[in-house]
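haha ok so turns out i had the wrong file open the whole time. this is the CORRECT one, sorry everyone. sequence first:
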Amino acid sequence: MARLSLWCLGGLLLCAVHLVAAADPLPNCSYPAIYGFGDSLTDVGNGIAAFPEKFKHAEIDPYGIQFPMHAADRYTDGKMFIDFLAFGIRRRPNYAILRGTAGDFTYGSNFAAYGGSARPVKVWNTGEKFTSPFSLDVQQQWFQRYKIRLWFYESPVYNPNGRLVQSLPKLSSVNSSLFTVWAGYQDYFWSLYEKKLTVSQTRKIVPEVVKAIEEHIEKILAVVEYTPPGFPTMLMPPATEVLIQNQLPLGCVPALLTVHGGSHAKYDEYGCLSDLNKISKAHNKLLGEKVEALRKKYPAAKLYYGDVYGVYEDILKKPADYSEYIHHECEAWVWGLFCVVGEREGVAWEGVGGVEFLSGDEILRDS
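then structure:
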């Protein structure tokens, strides 16, 4: 497995990615826009925009306390991985597509949603805490409609003389923008946390989850035809550069350690659940194979494979290297905040996702 790094400089180093095959590293970070797809690990406000009562806790301390413009509508204490990319590329936040106020979409948009699964949602129960109906197929529909809106605002017929002014990128910039896809966590976490499936049953859905991600990537890489009313058919520009991130070690997630831990469980040397980590490893292996296959199928596109698992594991192996970031700030906040204590204090947020430094700073140091 070749390992290359993507460095974006904007007063800070942004991220490092691991690639599953030889490929050229990104030469710079001069992207006109950035677009994100996925679940709560990437959502910057779509969940709370769609369901303000259900997800209102995202605006309450300690959520967003490290974010420059708190409250941030993010499900962590500060910036997420996509924020580090966005601030480094354009030095501006990445805004949720459903956000109706105070959003600046000049440099792209975010389609990820809290509780959004990789697989299509067939039945959705509004009372379930960690879920939403906005799976990747729905996010894909938003994106395709988004491109039509870009065309509309540029059309001299539908928007003569630019009378309707919107802060949007040019449609032509889509194929030179950076896309991120980080999905699948919701599929596994929800199945395991709520015990909808056993551990062995959850491992069996890995091919379905990866297939859904693969199909989503193919759709954003595909040239789509669109026929505007009264106009000839046109070709909508596709994505050409996509960063696909793998799964973090599920067996190290505090909420899942709480639910599936105990005297009967098998732990690894870092105190993580071995059987749950096998799910992540199976997912990552298959996803890496699919990314390599897509590289061959779409040779003109650049597909980057972000090794989140490797970064997380490196922190567990060498916590002293990250000691300046790791500290203990757990109290009895909303939703019964889970805390990770001991040498790895501060790695997890709410027992579900990661804190700001896990999303950015420690990834910067892993190169």
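The domain at 34-365 is CATH 3.40.50 (Rossmann fold).
again sry for the mixup
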